[in-house]
Amino acid sequence: MSLSSVGGMAKVGGGRTMAGLLHEAAFVGGRWLPASSAASILSVHNPATNALIGDVPMLDGENVVEAISFAKEAQVEWASL
Predict the structure, then answer these.
(1) 17 domain-assigned
(2) Using an 8 Å Cβ cutoff, are 21 and 70 in contact?
(3) pLDDT digit string (tens) for 14-33?
(4) With a threshold of 0.85, does the pTM exceed it?
């Protein structure tokens, strides 16, 4: 399955689009965290074509610590499966 982003819509396979598939936020602790400012957004490009895939937030230190904490908790639960 190929995936690309076109005008904010995720495009899958034969040109089908799936609204809401790509989020330009970080998923931390069960919620989406947006960038705190326009200056803290990183554009992600396809390295083969240099086409824009989307934008992601660069989290501040507090959000990073929170994300690590949630990841540690999730890993313990996941390892017990």
Answers:
(1) no
(2) no
(3) 555 555 677 788 889 899 88
(4) no
